Amino acid sequence: MSKHEMLETAEVVGERAAKAEAAVQRLTRWHDDFPTPGVRFADLTPVFADSEGFRSVLDCFAACAPDADLVAGVDARGFLLGAGVAAILGTGVIAVRKAGKLPPPVLSREYTLEYGSAALEIPADGIDLAGRRVLLLDDVLATGGTLAAAAELFTAAGAEVAAAAVVLELGFLEGRERQGNYPVTSIVKL
């Protein structure tokens, strides 16, 4: 991507992010001490249930990597985002699943999160990922383990993570610092 194209992309992302940010701020429901004490859970269901709010999030994400040829959504709310953005971009979509949800063979990465540990998987065969430019989507960037593990899966499969995007970023947890050499867009940063 040329410098001019990168500036145009940043401009479009900025315009679309402002609209999406307003919707996310207005519609997100917050739950303290869920799923465990000390964690503040952001329920994005009302954002996704609102047609204008959902579309603004999808439009913002699509502008993050308009040249991606595959969109990946991280389990589970990322599935909704990934499918919508792939439809806008005219690409395929792949679900990054929690461990044990796909038949073998799989590529797997374990990671830690703010309230435990988990693993993510993608198919190890059946989808040629070598050389593909992937736009990686998730709902929240907290400690960064989930997004980083997903990116590592695609890199291990020979793909390039073109960009990553999240609806909410909990900046105080410094999850952005765990990400690789790809741009990360967050609609709302707390």
**SSE series:** HEEHHEHEEEEHEE
Helix content: 25-40%
Which class do the helix and strand fractions yield?
A: alpha/beta
Total beta-strand segments: 9
What general form does the structure show?
globular
Question: What portion of the residues fall into strands of 2 or more residues?
Answer: 25-35%
What would you report as the Rg, rounded to the nearest angstrom?
16 Å
**Total count of domains:** 1
What do these coordinates show?
This protein is an alpha/beta fold. It has one domain (3-189): Rossmann fold (3-Layer(aba) Sandwich), CATH 3.40.50. It contains five helices and nine strands, in the order H-E-E-H-H-E-H-E-E-E-E-H-E-E. The chain has helices spanning 3-27, 45-49, 51-64, 77-89, 145-156, and strands spanning 29-32, 40-43, 70-74, 92-98, 106-113, 116-123, 133-141, 160-169, 184-189. Helix 4 links the parallel strand 3 and strand 4. The chain starts with a helix and ends with a strand.
Task: Please render the helix and strand layout as text.
Elements: H1 3-27, E1 29-32, E2 40-43, H2 45-49, H3 51-64, E3 70-74, H4 77-89, E4 92-98, E5 106-113, E6 116-123, E7 133-141, H5 145-156, E8 160-169, E9 184-189
Parallel strand pairs: 3-4, 3-7, 7-8, 8-9
Antiparallel strand pairs: 1-2, 4-6, 5-6
Helix pairs in contact: 1-3, 3-4
Which short descriptors sum up this protein?
alpha/beta, Rossmann fold, globular, 190 residues, 36% helix, 5 helices, 7-stranded mixed sheet
